[in-house]
Amino acid sequence: MLSGKYKILYNKFTRVIDANRVFIDELSTLAYGTDASFYRLLPKIVVKAQDENEVSFLLKECADLLIPVTFRAAGTSLSGQAITDSVLIIAGYHWKNFKILDDGKQIRLQPGLIGARVNGLLAKYNRKIGPDPASINTAMIGGIAANNASGMCCGTAQNSYNTLSSMRIIFWDGTLLDTGCSASKEAFSKSHALFLQDLLLIVKDVRSNQELCQRIESKFKIKNTTGYSLNALIDFKDPFEIIQHLMIGSEGTLGFISEITYHTVIDLKNKAVALVIFNSVENACNVVSVLKNIVVSAVELIDYAGLKSVKDKDGMPQALQNLPITACALLIDTRANSEDHLNNQILEIIKVVPKELLLFPIVFTTNASEYALLWEIRKGLFPSIGAIRKMGTSVIIEDVAFPLENLAVATIVLQDLLKKWGYNEAVIFGHALEGNIHFVFTQNFDVPSEIERYSGFMDEVANIVVKQFNGSLKAEHGTGRNMAPYVLLEWGEQAYDLMYRIKKLFDPYTILNPEVILSKDSGIHLKNLKPIPQADPIIDKCTECGFCEPNCVSADFTLSPRQRIVAFREISRLSTFKQGKKQKEILLKQYQYSGKDTCATDGLCAVSCPVNIDTGKLIKNLRTAEFNSNAKIARYVAANFSFVLIVVSKLLAMANFFQKVLGNPNMLAVSTAFRKVSIKKLPQWNQFLPNGAEALLSNKIKSSESRKVVYFPSCINRTMGLSANDKNEEQLSHKLLKLLNKAGYEVIYPQNVANLCCGMPFLSKGYKDVGNFKIREIEKALYIASENGKLPIITDMSPCLLTLKENNCLGLNLYETVAFIDDFLLPYLTVSPLKDTITVFPVCSIKKMGMTDKLESVAKKCAENVIMTETTCCGFSGDKGFDFPELNQFGLSKLRDDIPGNVTRAYCTSRTCEIGLSLHTGLSYKSIVYLVDEVTKSIK
């Protein structure tokens, strides 16, 4: 419980801000107290701020009580700069507004937008933002700017500092400054005249010190995010330019960036990449200097250990399997505005790289999937390496830069140093073209001797980087807590004192993210180290990088996959000692709803996880233990499945009858009242709940051309018929049968189809044994029906097909319906595309199977104008949309805004998802089968 100043502060906060966005409970403070670094602090208060007014209010109140405050966006920070034991302000979900300016040449962004999303917005203009960190699919603009993150291709020329146009800043006292607005600057000049006067005095002192100016200039000739952006003091004269450029890389210690406008850069569409393998690290590094003088977009170094860590991933070159221990690779990327230019650049690269230094000939690929795979492997190196660490250890990534001429010898010295200190598993990789090297190693922090080893190693690293090679101790990951003790060593006393003057000017009472960037505590990097206990084999590989979070429907609603893992690890840790019993019980109680009940278990978290961790599997296992008491009921349902479906179908028909009698408003009121009385045990009715289904139709055609297909109608579509708004339609099982017949296919139902199920309803609720029984039952039936696996098999729900594929239904020729339509039906049909604009939603199972492109292909063959929309997941998750409708509502809260007003037709591939999509968009979603049937005729 809060006490003292924090209790007063909480009461002040909740008088103005919705208490549902102000958190003080144990689970929330634990979950949000974790970022991607190896540090952890537990905030006392977490606030999900909604707008600038709220941030201004929060800062004023914190300043009034001299309580520290830290800002957080995505939490992908690696150096401990986004954690606090005080007040944490989250600027994520509510901070996603943007405006594209000047035909894409500029873009105005709030801090909660993910970098990759921004590039998606700019794609039609052939533009992108300059910064391109490896975490761009997860990292948000607020963190990218506040850390001056760079990445693979942007170097220093295209980072946030050099592509900044303007900025909206909220200072410690709540004052808002818009550097792109003359009126705002004029008002600030009056209200903060002394501030500007002191700033200009600092600038004058710096510029009168030639030695210091030279030091600053030399430090920024290579990548450098150690300390503050002192180059702003010599690069600009306008005080507002100086202010906004000092904010870049300030890590929330000088103020809050509530909006930033970037100058965008050209995104060249013709791209090629090659994984070039050299016989030694030295030779690979020496070639980088040659490549610097020709047209390359990026050159990424990967040492032998790094190559070894990814050699078994799908799609990796066979050459990686038997490399000598001296091997080292450069991932070379080149881009151009035409294919001819690209080909010429490729030839030039091949020409300048000495063949005698290579283990294999250079092979460039322009294939989009192969290109993406090689880059995804590189981007996922850090968490991939973390996944093969000894369980219970932390994975640490350091980030240094050297003058390019020193790269080869410095890399070798680093390798020797890692071995000297016993980090034999370490991996070195990085942005070689900029002399920027990352080295990753694992560290046990459980015993003092290991902390001492880490401390000694870091001291020696700092001395070598700074004193021997005049490099940067942080090139792009930010100073944070991790490198704060070494800022003085790197910069010297004059520059260090200058940084404290800047800090004092912007933050006179040191309430903004204290102990980050600047700290008098020489051991700050050895404190508040994150525990990584073993908890479950499913999630033990997790490094808490956060790459999973953008794909999770419940992130920002309850918990994200990373946060579920963090909480479960803590619960497991507390189980190991008696005094943790009470805290464990508190967390378990809070975890029930936030961790278990509202996890969609859709597995999308694994899609973006570099090591394929499916947190949903963990939750399903936890549900298994929880629902063991109801296993008898589950077994009864499974054994009497056809009877249960009939009962459910009758109940749906009854609900449909009362809907017609009472009308939608009255029916909603009555059902909501019943749900409330039952303490939410009864499912939530909505107007798109379908009627009961009719019996399956018999096959109408015997194929003379041996065109046969096995059709397994899902139990959902054998139970659910048409919704009240589906007028003049047939239920899906009838429609798909007729479409298949239209294309000349004889349709075969598996025997005893009324009792068959893919097992998903049982598996998702934790009844693993029952679910596996149903899977083996249907596997046998489908094997017989398909003539021992010879014939193709389709079902009418993509989640059902995914379940069959994921559960080892071997020897079966399984097809997703849209794939079968595209590849095997349309060739036998004539298509007259709709002229209407339609929208199509790829459900989770479509994404997981990699079928989004195929779904889009079918849609575009059947309609002239197609809007592909998506959120992470619709949140309906089988029947969860009835039991926890708030998850579905949250998941689709922004979808309607992405659909143009002229769209009247909407399609997807999952019946239950259609219910939630229809409810929250006002459009009647149907299976895409209806679209295909409407626009096709049989070829006579």
From TrEMBL:
Pfam families: CCG, FAD-oxidase_C, FAD_binding_4, Fer4_8. Residues 531-562 form the 4Fe-4S ferredoxin-type domain. Its EC number is 1.1.2.4. It is an enzyme of class 1 (oxidoreductase). Keywords: FAD, Flavoprotein, Oxidoreductase, Transit peptide. InterPro entries: 4Fe4S_Fe-S-bd, Cys_rich_dom, FAD-bd_oxidored_4_C, FAD-bd_PCMH, FAD-bd_PCMH-like_sf, FAD-bd_PCMH_sub1, FAD-bd_PCMH_sub2, FAD-linked_Oxase-like_C. Coiled coil: none annotated. Residues 39-267 form the FAD-binding PCMH-type domain. It comes from the Bacteria. Gene3D superfamilies: 3.30.465.10, 3.30.70.2190, 3.30.70.2740, Alpha-helical ferredoxin, Uridine Diphospho-n-acetylenolpyruvylglucosamine Reductase, domain 2, Vanillyl-alcohol Oxidase, Chain A, domain 4. One of its GO terms (biological process) is lactate catabolic process. GO terms for molecular function: D-lactate dehydrogenase (cytochrome) activity; D-lactate dehydrogenase (NAD+) activity; FAD binding; iron-sulfur cluster binding. Its cofactor is FAD. Belongs to the FAD-binding oxidoreductase/transferase type 4 family. This is D-lactate dehydrogenase (cytochrome). The lineage of its organism: Bacteria, Pseudomonadati, Bacteroidota, Flavobacteriia, Flavobacteriales.
